[in-house]
Amino acid sequence: MEAEVTQILLTKNKSNYSGDSFHESSLELKSYSSGLKWVFLDYSSLWRAGLSWSIFFLLNIGVPLVSHFVFSCSDCDSNHQRPYDAIVQLSLSLFTAISFISISTFARKYGLRKFLFLDKLCDESERVRQGYTQQLHRSMKLLSAFVLPCFLADSAYKIWWFSSAGTQIPYLYNMFWSKVVVCILLMSSWLYRISICYLVCVLFRLTCFLQILRLEDFAQVFQRESDVASILIEHLRIRRNLRVISHRFRLFILSTLILVTISQFVSLLVTTEPSSTISLFTAGEIALCSVTLVTGLFICLRSAAKITHKAQSITSLAAKWNACATIESFDDLDDETPTAQIASARVGCPVTSNWDSDNEEGDGDDVLDNTNMVPVYANTISYQKRQALVTYFEHNKAGITVYGFMLDRTWLHTIVAIHLSLTLWILNKTIGIS
User: Fold this and answer.
1) Sign of CA dihedral 80, 81, 83, 86
2) For position 40, what pLDDT does the model report?
3) What is the pTM of this model?
4) Are 115 and 33 in contact (CB under 8 A)?
5) Of the candidates 421, 394, 67, which has an alpha carbon nearest to the alpha carbon of residue 261?
6) Which keywords are on file for this protein (predicted)?
7) Could you give the C-alpha distances from 58 to 61, 63, 419, in angstroms and in order?
8) Which SS3 state, helix, strand or coil, does residue 406 take?
9) Pair (153, 240) in one structural domain
């Protein structure tokens, strides 16, 4: 797997790297592949696939079931009781099952190389390949940044729980070693499940980031001599990649959204009841589980909205390009007029000019969405072709979709509004907020 990824990403570009740069990029990809192997499914042989499924059933189903029914500790004191353990185990296990089945499908159907679009990088520019290589390495750090804090927090709770409960916890033969083995199994189960959950979300973010790099590289066609046919072909290729990503992840995103919504409102309902006991000891795990689920959903929705916003910014960039070219064309027809010459000169050096007098960049300004003028080549493309291209962009907006619904910022605002309404309704039923 490591050799496959390294070869696809770096073979074409090998002559352009220095020795140190090539070695560093190879190490980054090896680190990424090695990090995936212990949670990503390896279907290279039948026994490895069987081992992956066996680990899944053991750590995602077997250990949580035994933990819930054997260590419910209904006779323990109030700090060691776990009244919300069923919600925690069920929510996290369902999220892991959705993620695991998605990864299994991707690994069996596409393989790591095709799934991460590494087989298509040979057709991309050097800037895109280098940016994607860096993002591959950064994704492993991002995965660790999400997994480790949750794992350490839950490990501290479990160690405290087993070490302070004493003889109230059931054990076999030797109390000390029974607690140690069970605690290690529960910690391993928690680590495995949150790793699988976050992994799919990080992989989705990674594939979206590649399309962002492609869009930013595609935006350069409006700053050099290009023909409409090549611009249209490149945009169609990007739209196809976005459709492929949408098709692969649509079921995962929709299932995650439904699961997280139901889980959070059930958690809110049971924790706000008048008879519920809320403390750091009893509700700590449900809070940690909620953070895990919501963060995973947030990564997916934010990545989808970001790539959709970038893809739709192409329309405004094309319209600005058409306007600049049209103004330049009319100025050339009347070049005796001093004002026309001044306007033409201003359009002739737009790349370095900003509308802001203090030369400060706006928040989020980039090559796709800024207030800079566009350098034009009036004699390259006719007005009719430019207008046809702008019309095409206006009626063929690209982005991440879920069964036809575009995951843009408007869609996210709708989700937030619906969740806020349901939250207030539940709080009104439980604690009487009017």
Assistant:
1) positive
2) 52
3) 0.81
4) no
5) 421
6) Membrane, Transmembrane, Transmembrane helix
7) 6, 6, 34
8) strand
9) yes
Rounded Cα–Cα distance for residues 361 and 24 (Å): 33
403 occurs within a structural domain: no
Quickly tell me which residue has 């949670």 as its tokens: 39
Are 36 and 160 spatial neighbours (Cβ–Cβ below 8 Å)?
no
Q: What pLDDT sits at residue 36?
A: 56
pLDDT at site 121? 77
**152-189 per-residue burial string, b: 16 or more CB within 10 A, e: under 16:** ebbbebbeebbeebeeebeeeeeeeeebeebbebbbeb
Rounded CA-CA distance 373/235 in Å is: 21
Length of the chain: 434
Structural domain count of the chain = 2
* H-helix segments, 272-408: 280-333, 338-348, 383-395
**407: Cβ contacts below 8 Å, ≥ 6 apart:** 253, 301, 304, 305, 308, 399, 400, 401
Whether 404 is covered by a domain: the verdict is no
User: Domain containing 390: what range?
Assistant: 318-354+366-395
Residue 418 lies in a domain: no
Query: Which of these three, 241, 275, 310, is where a domain ends?
Result: 310
Q: Is the CB of residue 182 less than 8 Å from the CB of residue 162?
A: yes
Q: How many CB atoms lie within 10 A of CB 275?
A: 6
pLDDT value of residue 317: 85
CB of 61 closer than 8 Å to CB of 78: no
Residue 237's alpha-carbon distances to 50, 231, 243, 398, 403, in angstroms, are 37, 10, 10, 11, 20
The DSSP bridge partners found for residue 401 are 406
What DSSP designation does 113 have? H
| 257 and 331 both lie in a single domain | no
Contact 328, 344 (CB under 8 A): yes
The three-state secondary structure class of 156 is: helix
- Strand, coil or helix: 402: strand
The rounded average pLDDT for each run of 10 residues, N- to C-terminus, in the chain (434 residues) is 41 42 45 54 71 88 88 75 88 94 85 79 81 84 91 91 73 76 91 92 91 87 76 88 92 94 90 80 88 93 91 86 74 48 43 44 54 54 81 86 88 88 81 62
